[in-house]
Design a protein that fits this description.
Active site: 236 (proton acceptor)
Structural class: alpha/beta
Number of helices: 12
CATH class: Alpha Beta
Helix content: 40-55%
Protein name: FMN-dependent alpha-hydroxy acid dehydrogenase
Distance between the termini: 38 Å
CATH superfamily: Aldolase class I
Strand order of the largest sheet: 4-5-6-7-8-9-10-11
Number of strands: 12
Domain FMN hydroxy acid dehydrogenase: 37-340
Radius of gyration: 19 Å
Shape: globular
Keywords: Flavoprotein, FMN, Oxidoreductase
Binding site for FMN: 212, 234, 236, 267-271
CATH topology: TIM Barrel
Strand content: 5-15%
C-alpha cells in the first residue's frame, strides 16, 4: 500500500467525524467531539500543527558524506526512530466501529514493535481495556507503554497491577486527562494529582514512569520532583483546555528547565519527519504522534502502520541529510530558525 491508499481506505470506515485528511491539521474536524477534534473553539489542535510550520530548517550540505542513522536509545531500549504512537481511548466511540480499544491497541502495538518503535496504549472505564493492553504488550516482549488516567488511588492501583502483567519497559499517566468530563464526574473523584501523590505512583510502577500533559517549566519541575523518568509536553491535542498555547511554543522553556535531567517527549500536531526534526532541534528527545496512527490502523491495519512509519523515517532521513546531521545526536538548535 501507499500512504495515499491508506488514507483512501480509512475514509471508508473511520466514521463521520474524522475525514482522514491528507494533512491532519485539525481544521476539517475542528470541535467535533466525539471525534478527533479539539475542545471549545476547536483551534488548539490547529495551533499545534501551525506552530511547527513556523520553524524553518537550515539547509547545509557541506559536510563529510555518510549514512544517516535515525535510531535512538530511550529508557534502556533501542528504537529505529525517536517516535512513539500515542495513546487513544474510546476508539469506536470517536472513530467508528471497525476497531474497539482492545483490537486497536493490539494492532497498533504489534505493528509498532515490528517496525522498530513503540506504542502507548489508551485507558478507559472498562477494565478489559487495560487487561487487553497488558496481554498485547507481553506478546510483543514488553515493547509498549500502558497509559493510566489520573483515576482515584484505588483504581490506579488496580490498573497498575494489570499493566505490570505485561512487563512493559515503561508506564505512563496522562495527567492532562484530568480535564476529561468522564473523569471529573467520578466518585471517588479523579483528576489532578499532587507532587506527593505522583511520587507514590511513580514508585509503585517499578519501571521508568512518564508523565504526559506538561505545558509549563514549573509543571516539568514538579514532574521531576515526583521522580518521573520522562515527561510529555502535551495539551492533549487541544481536547481538555481551549485557548492554551501550542506545544512547540512552550517546549524551549521546558527544555531549559529540565533538559538533561529527564527525557522530554513532545506531541501535538507533529505529522512528518521534518516536524520530528524540528522538535528534536528544539531539545526534545522524542515525539509522540497519535491521530495519524489511528488513520493508519483504520486504513491498513498493521500494513498501514508500516507504511506510515516508513514515510516518517524517509522524511526524517532526508531532512537530516540536507542539514548535516548523520545521527540523532547531531541535530542541534542552530539547524532551525523560528519565524514569528
Amino acid at each position: 500500500m501507499t500512504y495515499s491508499e491508506v488514507l483512501e481506505e480509512a475514509r471508508k470506515c473511520i466514521g463521520d467525524k474524522c475525514k482522514a485528511c491528507p494533512v491532519c491539521n485539525g481544521i476539517a474536524c475542528k470541535n467535533a467531539i466525539p471525534g478527533p477534534g479539539a475542545k471549545g473553539s476547536g483551534t488548539v489542535a490547529t495551533r499545534n500543527f501551525n506552530a511547527w510550520q513556523n520553524i524553518f530548517v537550515n539547509m547545509d550540505t557541506i559536510y563529510k558524506n555518510g549514512a544517516v542513522d535515525t535510531s535512538v536509545e530511550f529508557l534502556g531500549k533501542h528504537f529505529a526512530l525517536p517516535v512513539f504512537a500515542g495513546p487513544v481511548g474510546s476508539v469506536n466511540f470517536h472513530y467508528g466501529e471497525k476497531f474497539d480499544d482492545l483490537s486497536y491497541n493490539h494492532t497498533l502495538l504489534t505493528a509498532c514493535a515490528k517496525n522498530g518503535i513503540a506504542g502507548f496504549t489508551g485507558d478507559g472505564v472498562n477494565i478489559k481495556v487495560m487487561e487487553g493492553a497488558a496481554k498485547s504488550i507481553a506478546a510483543n516482549g514488553g515493547i509498549g507503554i500502558p497509559t493510566i488516567k489520573p483515576w482515584d488511588s484505588e483504581t490506579i492501583k488496580e490498573k497498575m497491577e494489570l499493566a505490570r502483567q505485561g512487563k512493559p519497559f515503561a508506564m505512563a499517566m496522562d495527567i492532562d486527562g484530568a480535564g476529561l468530563p468522564f473523569l471529573k464526574n467520578r466518585n471517588p473523584p479523579a483528576g489532578s494529582k499532587s507532587v506527593e501523590e505522583l511520587s507514590e505512583i511513580v514508585k509503585a510502577a517499578g519501571v521508568p514512569f512518564i508523565i504526559k500533559g506538561i505545558m509549563t517549566a514549573r509543571g516539568a519541575e514538579k514532574a521531576l520532583e515526583a521522580g518521573a523518568s520522562a515527561i510529555v509536553v502535551s495539551n492533549h491535542g487541544g481536547r481538555v483546555l481551549d485557548g492554551c498555547p501550542a506545544t512547540a511554543e512552550v517546549l524551549p522553556e521546558i527544555v531549559s528547565a529540565v533538559g538533561g535531567r529527564m527525557k522530554i517527549i513532545v506531541d501535538g500536531g507533529i505529522r512528518s519527519g521534518t516536524d520530528i526534526f524540528r522538535a528534536l532541534a528544539l531539545g526534545a528527545n522524542a515525539v509522540i504522534i497519535a491521530r495519524p496512527f489511528v488513520t493508519a490502523v483504520f486504513g491498513g491495519g498493521e500494513e498501514g502502520v508500516k507504511v506510515y512509519v516508513e514515510k516518517l523515517k524517509s522524511e526524517l532521513e532526508d531532512t537530516m541529510s540536507m542539514t548535516g546531521a548523520l545521527k540523532i545526536s547531531d541535530i542541534s538548535r542552530d539547524m532551525i530558525r523560528i519565524v514569528r
